[in-house]
Amino acid sequence: MKLFSPLLKDKKSRNSVYLYSGHFTEYLISFLALPFISRAIGPEKLGLVGFTQLFGILMFLIIEFGSPLLAVREVVRKKFHKNELAIFVEKITSFKIFLIPLVFLISIATFFLVPKFQGYYEFLFFATLGAVFQGLTPTWYFEGLEKIKYQVLTKLFFRALFLLLIIYFVESEKDAVLVIIINSICSFFVFSLLFYKMKSELVRFSLININESIKIGKKSIQSFIISITPIIYQNISLALLSYLIDPARFGLLIGSIKIHTAFHNLYGPLSQVFYPYLNNLEYNENKNVNQNVFKYLIILLFIGLVIGLFLYSFSDWIISLLLGPNFFKSKTILQAYSIALPLTAISNALCRQWLMIKGYDYFYSIIQITGLIVSLFILIILVEKFGALSAPLSFISYESTLIFLTIIKMIRHKNVFKI
Questions:
Q1: How many CA atoms lie within 13 A of 178 on its CB side?
Q2: Range 139-166 burial, b when 16+ CB lie within 10 A, else e
Q3: In this predicted structure, what is the pLDDT of residue 24?
Q4: Does the pLDDT value for residue 30 go beyond 50?
């Protein structure tokens, strides 16, 4: 019960309820939208939309540049020093704005280098535009200050609007690009409202010169690598598979990834609730940090085993409900992804939580890159024999690599097992 002690206090309890309720509702809306989208545009266009959305996530993470890890930690430490907080917000926001031309250049290069996007640049443009708005949205500011209610309610309103617009406008294969456009519009409004709210609370705000903003960028590099490496892996692996398997099978893979991602994201709220809490314990040299991380691991692993077993056992029903009969052949792919869910729970607790709160950012970034190389190597070896199934198998190898290397680090860390 000590693990939940921060949730028993009024403010943290409210924040936890808002955050978890908000995430749960957001995932529910995503689940509701998926059947309408998949049935309206079919497997091939769903593959294009899903691939585009993954590219958009990559661009979003470039603009975000590690802020969920670094910026939340900095805001927590500076929240009682208004001038220092305002200066930090100016620096990190200015740096993000300087990155905007870069992501559009990457988008243009992707159009020419990835055949999947030939003739579909509007998909890339609106995905990039939406990614810019998402990357500039200061959710890190509100999480660091533990002001969760406003950002959660704002996001929920526009996610609900997204669902309504999808149901009304997306009717056939030719409407596939509207999924990307509608998402970009909603992202713009979320950014506008949250940025205005943040700006109104700061004692000062102005953009600063590029040299000052680059300093905060350098400080964020390791957090950026940690955040972006899994998405780089997904984008590279899917780019390779778009060459190597036929469009219909690729669409089946994307459908499975969307379902797996929805279940995988159920870890997010719990992780976001406890990351600031565990970070504060470490910052204040609390002796119960390892004990709380261990209990967090047990809870997350239990959740992973339950949802993994559910996804594996009821894959036929889930595919029928969310994707439709055209996607029944994706069952084996989805079941393979379900096996990865408990592994992701372990890596979240040991890597994203323990390594980060202990200050092992550099080590975490190195093992992320190592996992990327290992998993891509396995993908290339397996793709000829297993086709689309090689994607979840390589993802399992990615998570396993992170866990194995982190456990070695923990064994070498003093007193880590004194819980």
A1: 19
A2: bbbbbbbbbbeebbebbbebbeebbebb
A3: 65
A4: yes
Per-residue pLDDT of 386-410, as tens digits, reads: 988 999 999 999 999 999 999 998 8
342 neighbors 293 (Cβ within 8 angstroms)? no
Chain centroid to Cα 189, Å, comes to 20
**Residue position matching structure tokens 């009717």:** 171
CA separation for the pair 345, 403 (Å, rounded)? 10
Query: What DSSP string runs through 50-110?
Result: HHHHHHHHHHHHHHHTTHHHHHHHHHHHHTT-HHHHHHHHHHHHHHHHHTHHHHHHHHHHH
The encoded tokens of residue 405 equal 């290397």
Instruction: Using DSSP, state whether 324 is helix, strand or coil.
Output: coil
419 vs 416: CA distance, rounded Å: 7
Buried b (16+ CB within 10 A) or exposed e, 187-223: bbebbebbbebbeeeeeeeeeeeeeebeebbebbebb
What is the amino acid identity at position 197?
A: K
Number of Cα atoms under 13 Å in the Cβ half of residue 257: 27
Q: What is the pLDDT of residues 167-204, one digit of tens each?
A: 889 888 888 999 999 999 999 999 999 999 999 888 88
Q: How far apart are CA 67 and CA 17, in angstroms?
A: 23
Per-residue pLDDT reduced to its tens digit, 137-171: 988 888 777 777 788 888 888 988 998 999 889 88
pTM attached to this predicted model: 0.70
Residue 292 corresponds to which tokens in the numbers above? 């709380």
